[in-house]
Fold this sequence. Notes:
265 residues, Helix Hairpins, 4 domains, 0% strand
Amino acid sequence: MTDKNALTELLNIMQTLRDPNGGCPWDLKQDFKSxxxxxxxxxxxxxxxxxxxxxxxxKNELGDLLFQIVFYAQIAKEQNLFDFDDVINQxxxxxxxxxxxxxxxxxxxxxxxxxxxxxAIKAQERAEKALSVNTSxxxxxxxxxxxxSKAKKIQQRVAGLGxxxxxxxxxxxxxxxxxxxxxxxxEHDPLSEHTAEEIGDLLFATVNVARHxxxxxxxxxxxxxxxxxxxxxxxxxxxxxxxxxxxxxxxxEMDSAWDAIKKVK
Length: 265
């Protein structure tokens, strides 16, 4: 089966699943909103395969994610909005437009020059949209985007406008400032909305440090979650080996086990 025939077959399968005469009842019930949770789940499963280096399963998970796109395109086709070809054609046009150094100028650019060019092109696209639609700076940032990623996106947007520290030092100083403000708020009223707001500011500032050193905050927190989880499982095993359990161990005993595990590289 050729690549083109494989894609055609996939689109035909999707159309059959949505056929009112003999299609799948579950697929027929779905609409744009109902399949969003499935799309997010599939995207996370792709990310998990990559994070855990489970490349043998990656092909399968990428297929599941592609199915989500085909699903949306089929629903749109039924509503005379657009079809899968429109999605592909618009994507191709956008990729060429956003990579003039490859498709037009054919000149080598540094990473910094590429980043500036990318931001300039994106800014131009937003400006063109603003001519016909009342848009804000954040119009194209999804409302339901994970908060760490959204924070990074907002920071990138304003950095492209020149509102940024020249290096990570300024961002790190801001974190120190926010830590002091959190401490002050906690001492005054730990359960107040003001304290919650200050903690949010601290998280936002921490994302900025990650952005300045070209790290993705979502990925960093996933790695931290995994590291903590793996270490705590070792704490559990350590306690069991001593005839204890997490339920019965004191905080001091768990701390001691934690410190012992940390020393083992």
